[in-house]
Amino acid sequence: MDIKKIFGVILTLLGISSLIYTAILFNNTSGGVRDVKSLVIYGILGIMFFSAGIGLVRTIKEAS
Fold it and tell me: Where are the domains of the chain?
């Protein structure tokens, strides 16, 4: 396995975990300003990591 593909998998897993954490925060929030800021920050980072990881895994070709 190539190092770029491993890095892509790690980014994808970080993105998934960040999006799951965002969902948990969303479920437990009361609507305060601090809650909304953390929801936005974790959500945006999760989407960025997930899309970067999927893009990296998709563009790396296996050399067989």
Answer: 3-59
